[in-house]
Design goal:
The chain has helices spanning 11-18, 22-32, 49-63, 73-76, 81-103, 107-120, 123-144, 149-168, 191-202, 219-226, 242-254, 265-268, 270-275, 285-308; strands at residues 8-10, 38-39, 45-48, 178-183, 206-209, 230-234, 259-262, 279-282. It has 309 residues and is of the alpha/beta class. Pfam families: B12-binding_2, MerR_1.
Length: 309
């Protein structure tokens, strides 16, 4: 038991140091017993430096996709290699099962696999570790000739129905910066942009969805009408190089808000997208929002510099 008179800190200070909400911290203590703070005579919690270090380690593990319910003292002390291998095997097993279900057009197995993942992990982790890799794998199978368009569409419709229902029933908000979101011209798979839009609400953004195969020349006017702070485009595969070189460049020059591109093409065409003046987001949802926030921060700093001239 820590001595309250030596280097002990109240819960609000610990929250500020670790980024963990006080309510969340109290829940972790009660439910998972990872730490046990000392109590003052009035019942207030106090935490030692060692306990704060443990909480920092817990946050690091959460950032790596490990759920709080599966964090133990072995992981906290750094013995995470075995767990990482088990996690990789777990996700590979689900991806393999889902791929087989798609090949057999078996919605029952598809549903049970999806629900198994959601019973253990948040939708953000399931998105990054299962759904996005599935979209990539199916696209690659189709390109190699191992899969069919029918299989890809089967999974796309399943995912769109799942995500569309969640998007429809989400809690509406009338605050937060608006993002105009759409699929690139020729892109008919909207699962990626739906996944992004659902996560956007959890990150404080409002999303205006324009759907598939969106003409880029329509977007500058839509930005003005919707008062959007940025444009987010989704593209899995781009076969027409002029789409990036000419159309995307023209869009960037025709609007005064940042233009972001996500999906597999933002990885394979990373340099071309940057040369066009847009921001490639990559495939990971969480990293995408970090890049968007950084871009908005830079844009704000530039506007201050211009105003001071």
């Amino acid at each position: 038991m820590p001595n309250p008179d030596v280097d002990a800190y109240p819960i609000r200070t610990v929250s500020a140091l670790t980024g963990i909400n006080p309510v969340t911290l109290r829940t972790w203590e009660r439910r998972y017993r990872l730490i046990e703070p000392v109590r003052t005579p009035k019942g207030h919690r106090l935490y030692t430096k060692d306990q704060i270090a443990i909480l920092h380690r817990v946050v690091d593990l959460l950032d790596k996709g490990i759920p709080i319910s599966r964090i133990n003292f072995s992981l906290i002390s750094g013995e995470a290699n075995t767990y990482s291998n088990q996690e990789e095997e777990f996700w590979n097993r689900l991806i393999t099962r889902m791929t087989a279900a798609v090949a057999n057009f078996d919605e029952v197995v598809l549903e049970s696999t999806y629900n198994e993942a959601l019973s253990l992990y948040s939708i953000e982790i399931v998105t990054d570790m299962l759904l996005m890799p599935m979209l990539i794998r199916l696209g690659e199978r189709w390109e190699r000739g191992d899969g069919t368009v029918a299989e890809e569409h089967f999974f796309g419709v399943y995912l769109r129905n799942k995500l569309g229902a969640r998007f429809h029933h989400r809690k509406r908000r009338d605050y937060g910066p608006a993002l105009l979101t759409a699929c690139m011209p020729g892109e008919r798979h909207e699962a990626g942009i739906l996944l992004f839009a659902l996560s956007a609400y959890d990150h404080g953004y409002r999303c205006i969805l324009l759907g598939t195969d969106m003409p880029l020349e329509e977007l500058p006017a839509a930005v003005v009408q919707s008062k959007s702070r940025g444009i987010v485009l989704s593209a899995s595969f781009i076969s027409d190089a002029s789409l990036i070189k000419r159309q995307l460049t023209h869009l960037v020059n025709a609007t005064n808000v940042p233009v972001f591109v996500g999906g597999q093409s933002s990885v394979t065409l990373h340099d071309a997208i940057k040369e066009a003046g847009a921001v490639p987001l990559g495939m990971e949802i969480e990293q995408s929002f970090k890049r968007i926030a950084e871009s908005f921060k830079n844009k704000f700093a530039q506007s201050l510099n211009v105003a001071s001239v």
